[in-house]
# Entry
Amino acid sequence: MAKDTKPEQTIISDTGDVSYVETSKGKHEYLVNKAPRNLRGPANKHDWQGVLRHLIIKVSKEGLPQGNGANAEVGRWMFDWFGESDVYPSETEVKKQVRLIFDELEKVGISDN
# Structure
């Protein structure tokens, strides 16, 4: 819904980016919403790009964990990195991100976890 509408305006259609409104005097006009659709909603409070950079460096130095427990080890690495800023994502979110990483590695034949 357009943020700039006034009480005397009725929204006829709203695409998210532009609203078409009718004023109480019968005049029609377009209002451009302030924020594009992809900028709405809460900001991502976890630095996933930062933790991925950390993981790349760690894997370069120590190698990728393999076998049973590899996912848990990478998850611990992620929690350790987030702990440095004392802003922890949920365990569910970390597990999801680790699974996505290993799924991509499996697609290119790097991991069999």
The radius of gyration is 23 Å. Strands lie at 9-14, 18-23, 28-32. The CA atoms of residues 52 and 75 lie 11 Å apart.
